[in-house]
Amino acid sequence: MTLFDCSTAFSYIIVTMKTTNKYGLLLVVLINWMSFANVMYSQKLEDMTNGTFNLTTVVNNKIVHYQSTDLVVELDLQTAQFTMILDPQNIKTGIDSLDKIIRTRKEVFRMVGELGIKHIPIEKHPPLEFEVSARVQDETIGYLEGEGELTYVFNGMYSSILTIVFNTDLKTLGLNDFIPAQFQNVELFIKCPIPNMS
User: Fold this and answer.
1) Which residues share a beta bridge with 194?
2) Each residue's pLDDT tens digit, 151-174
3) What is the SS3 assignment for 34-78?
4) pTM to 2 decimals?
């Protein structure tokens, strides 16, 4: 919250104090201060960052990587829940024929899930390893189970790096009609920085 936001909220409380009686005063001040605190709290606990998406499979007897650096990651630091969104138009393999197929998917790829930790720490911490559960929205095939790791790498802008690996299949990801792989089993590797919120 900016200095302007803080001063505006405080000014509003002062004006309210001058125009209410002594019994209504405490209630009004508390309500406004709680609202002000909730805004600060929610801003501190929720953030958005960009990550990388790397799906590895086999096409025509060759290992192919479907990659993107435009993965949008929404994180709730308090609950360790996340939403990941990727436009198929931003996925590249370096092979024109495969790129054209994956880009025929019109809907964005959207995954929601939860890290197997109570919260996402932003302070210094040892490397954390945990299970990750997720599902692709609009798909009813099943859930993804993967492994995650959070590594502290404070450099001013970021506090940690989150990596997630899913060993799954194209049908569960909802991508079986857009990736002509020889095998359904694939590895999905996701990596994103956790912004420094302190």
Assistant:
1) 160
2) 999 777 889 999 999 999 998 998
3) HHHHHHHHHHHHEEEEEEEEEEEEEECCEEEEEEEEEEEEEEECC
4) 0.75
